[in-house]
Amino acid sequence: MQEFVEFTLLGVSSGLVYAAIALSLVLIWRGTRVLNFAQGAMAMFTTYLALEVINGTGSYWLGFVVALAAGLVLGAVLERGVVRPVMARPPMNAVIVTIGLLILIEGVAGIIFGAQYRSFPAAYSVSGIKVGSFSLGISPDDVFIAAAVLAAAVVLWLIFQYTALGLRMRATAFDAGVARLLGVRVGRLLTVGWALAGLFGALAGVLISPATFVYPNSMDAIFVLGFTAAVIGGLDSPLGAVLGGLILGIALSFVAGYLSSDLVNLFGLAVLVVVLMLRPSGLLARAAARRV
Question: Are strands 130-131 and 134-135 parallel, antiparallel or unpaired?
């Protein structure tokens, strides 16, 4: 029973990191129908910036804030300067551009920061929490990870549900043409979507890096798992992204704990293939596909 509780709680913590990446992908997909293959590389680069600030100032929280701010700016700049010029072209052009950005960002990171593995500090203690003699199998830092992602997801939900900005973003996601006719500045909202996606990616990078180290390709595997979480929940559903991340995180934790950690990536890939074969629209997809 103790092992089951430990694996479940660890799965929730890691699953919410996958959910953050999934949310970043959903934010872009809803508005542009583009899958941003550079999302993981963007998260890696902002994590490097955070690490440089932390090492230079000794302040984890200053590095944390810098990473989030850099994610916002990087997402907006890439959308306006690189992605938007190809949006009127065939859809494959945008896909190729994001793949090119992935290679470019990882290459630039290697040139600037080096290719060696670098450790990233955790916000809180990584020692396991115990309740009496019962070990929960999670640390205060795992609790912080879960709380940070959930708080960010709740804020995003509140923005979408109760603000004029959220209403315009939902209208743009539903039908950009109609939204434009109603006076919505669609281009500006797409930039906001990319900026928010950059923020969620940066959050995921900072939270996961204490467990994975930082190097130019450090977020590649996390991106694949985040994409899997987004597919499980449905690429049109922010709630589905969170649900998909939790399902995937708990499942992978059980695989690592009861079988072997070597099977985690293989199992994640198998889940992606199965979902794409059986329900490619995801668990929380709309009944009818939206025309684009």
Answer: antiparallel
Q: What letters, b where the CB count within 10 A reaches 16 and e where it falls short, cover 124-141?
A: eeeeeeeeeeeebbbbeb
Helix spans in 58-90 (H)? 60-78
Tens of pLDDT, residue by residue over 24-64, are 999 888 877 888 999 999 999 999 999 999 999 999 999 99
Between CA 290 and CA 250 the distance in angstroms is 31
**Rounded-to-integer distance, Cα 34 and Cα 54, Å:** 34
pLDDT band for position 285 (50/70/90)? low
Q: How many domains does the chain have?
A: 1
- Over pLDDT 90: what percentage of the chain? 53
Q: Would you say residue 277 lies in a domain? A: no
| pTM given for the model | 0.89
Virtual torsion, Cα 213, 62, 249, 259, nearest 10 deg: 30
Tokens of 261: 């950690």
Range of the domain at 151: 2-219
> Whole-angstrom Cα distance, residue 48 to residue 63?
10
Whether residue 153 lies inside any domain: the answer is: yes
